[in-house]
Design a protein that fits this description.
5-stranded parallel sheet; NADH:ubiquinone reductase (non-electrogenic); flavoprotein; single chain; globular; alpha/beta
Length: 442
């Protein structure tokens, strides 16, 4: 029997859950290398995005966000490299390793599970000054930047500088935007005991968005929408509707109408894009650079290329429109792809993607969340606990999920210790910088 070669591109949800399904069904053949699986990814781990708010405010340690690839892709070859091109006509991919060398691999089946990138190119200066919660170390950078701003504000005598340092701006009012802004408020309230400047001066969290209202996804979900608006108002978040950001510079955010915000802390959550298919013209992609796939989650032009999640356009079964771009849809797409790969490798016909959808959720801070399951709305503490259980269930590693559950039971101690270690680290770096500046002055 000729060896079959399967290549996975990326460590996103689609790749993780497709491989879990494939390995669970064809474990023996994969371990015996009768089916050779290769994973090519620029990252050496899978990043779990479900607990964005909990990672920001320290409710969960940041180390629970990432799962090493060896825990997920058991039995597979792993190449940490950047994809250069997909040569679908040759059933091959090219990649670039850390040394800049280009190599080529051929495949029988190809899975594109790259997820997506923040669309930072849509705003001038976003790449230089914008923070991201989507990229691998984005939340870690956000927390470090938050503490650095507070430390600098504590040591400043300039009111204008303090205003800028204590102004925190989030661009985009979708689920990610409201979750980030709400948990920034909670984080700042937690840090008041460590930074007296927060009692002397009022901090300001700004939410800037181009639509009329927050959470445009909930236009027809009145219960969830009203609860969200009331919660945002209660948190004291400053809303800037119908405002399109033109550019971000150091210490300023400029709008297209000429107005500006004095802030040097900007989190961008205003959309996603994809560049995986830019070098392959024979595959159909849409305007947002997402692959068009059929009901089996394969590309119509190349029946051995599979994709889903953020990287593809997938028709939603039983409804008009397409699947949302969130983790649950990517997980379900991956599971179907894994089943279809198993069937194809056994010379059977693939099955259609039939998952109708479950719901959506966002957490503003601890005990405050919105949740929809099969059209039923939940709010407050009940929604928050259901959401926690839901995300624990879908974490890619059972060991990681169990440790995260233990951490949740002792959240107050963990939150304090996680912030204190950051504060101590930042103060040590500040002392080193001061000593260095003194030496430079001499």
């Amino acid at each position: 029997m000729e060896k079959k070669k399967v290549i996975f591109i990326g460590c996103g949800y689609v790749s993780v859950w497709a491989y879990k399904e494939l390995y669970g069904r064809l474990r023996k053949k994969i371990n015996n290398k009768e089916i050779e699986v290769t994973v090519i990814s620029i990252s050496n781990c899978h990043d779990f995005h479900g607990f964005t708010g909990e990672f920001i405010n320290g409710f969960l340690p940041i180390n629970f966000k990432s799962t090493p690839q060896e825990q997920i892709f058991k039995g597979a070859n792993y190449i940490q490299a950047k994809l250069k091109s997909i040569q679908a006509s040759e059933n091959a991919v090219e990649y670039i390793n850390d040394n800049g060398d280009v190599a080529k691999l051929h495949y029988d089946q190809l899975v594109l599970g790259t997820g997506s990138l923040d669309n930072f190119d849509s705003i001038e200066g976003a790449n230089a000054y914008g923070l991201s919660v989507k990229k691998s170390n984005g939340i870690k950078e956000l927390r470090e930047r938050l503490v650095r701003n507070l430390t600098e504000a504590e040591n400043s005598n300039d009111p204008n500088e303090i205003e800028s340092l204590l102004s925190f701006t989030v661009i985009g009012a979708g689920f990610a935007g409201v979750e980030v802004s709400g948990n920034l408020v909670e984080s700042l309230n937690i840090l008041k005991s460590d930074f007296p400047i927060l009692e002397k001066y009022s901090f300001k969290v700004n939410l800037v968005y181009s639509s009329d209202e927050i959470l445009p996804q909930l236009q027809k979900k009145r219960v969830l929408r009203n609860y969200s608006i009331k919660t945002i108002e209660k948190l004291g978040i400053h809303l800037y509707p119908n405002q399109k950001v033109q550019k971000i510079v150091d210490g300023k955010v400029f709008m297209e109408d000429g107005s500006s915000l004095n802030t040097n802390f900007v989190v961008c959550t205003m959309g996603q894009t994809n560049d995986v298919y830019s070098k392959e013209s024979s595959m159909k992609i849409n305007d947002s650079k997402r692959l068009i796939v059929d009901a089996f989650l394969k590309n119509p032009e190349h029946g051995n290329i599979w994709s889903g999640g953020d990287a593809a356009i997938v028709k939603r079964p039983y409804f008009s429109g397409t699947c949302n771009y969130d983790a649950l849809w990517a997980i379900k797409h991956g599971t179907r792809i894994g089943k279809n790969l198993t069937r194809v490798l056994k010379n059977k016909k693939p099955g259609k993607f039939k998952y109708p959808g479950l719901g959506q959720t966002a957490s503003f801070y601890k005990n405050k969340a919105i949740l929809e399951i099969y059209g039923l709305p939940f709010t407050g503490i009940l929604a928050w606990y259901i959401r926690i259980g839901f995300f624990l269930y879908f974490m890619p590693s059972r060991r990681l999920a169990f440790n995260a559950f233990k951490s949740i039971l002792f959240d107050s101690k963990i939150r304090k210790s996680s912030w204190h270690s950051l504060i101590q680290q930042n103060q040590e770096e500040l002392i080193i910088d001061r000593d260095f500046n003194k030496v430079e002055a001499l």
